[in-house]
Amino acid sequence: MDFKLPARDENSNKGTFGKILNISGSKYMWGAGLLSSLSALKIGAGYVVLASEEEVLKHINAPEIVLAPLSKISELDASVLLIGCGLSTLRKGIFETAISRNIPKVIDADGLNILAHTDIKLDKNSILTPHPKEASRLLNCTLDEVLDNMEDSVRKICEKYNCITVLKSHRTIVTDGEKIYYNTTGNSALAKAGSGDVLAGMIAGLLAQGSTPYEASCLGVHLHGLAGDLAKNDLTAYGVLASDTIRYIPYAVKKILTEEV
Question: What structural domains and CATH numbers belong to the chain?
């Protein structure tokens, strides 16, 4: 793995390690907001504000996460935007307002579905994290066309949307349009609901700490898979939940730190 973890200065505070605005969750998928927020914090982000519907916020019992209603997002300061995990539905106006911010962005899940039906232009600091079905919507093609040529598909999304693209599969591919990274960590334990939310949060957390969008994407994918591998070793591929993967993030980070010494 050629990418290094962002530095941790001892002379620091929570603001040093970034403030994430996470617009995620919906009535029947409030867990997506929780998982994506916790994974961002677990990988080292300093501060996460989860903005969502009141129905979502009343379920969140993690004291480390700051909560805010969607009506307040224009008032919330942030260094990184994460949007889309478990949103289900979101007014286009809120989406456009959020991604118009000139800050690095991670767009996942239903954020991608909104993007596929708009002509919004993204900046190069944006990261899209589709699975193959979402990729087919972004490219307006069939699922089989994506599955038959994953590398070509990830490059096409990158070119169409002027962004970093993380095309998720059992061997996730990341590209910025020039460089390309093929991930080698991970296993079937990660084929569980909520796994993508954890990955999106991890990438956002690395962005918040100063990693470049491409570095954050590659390192986030690698560490997510590694956390899944470590969890599988203890719990088997059958028994790992997305929340278990979050618990193993520090052990994955520790393994990388040991390799860097």
Answer: 15-260 (3.40.1190.20)
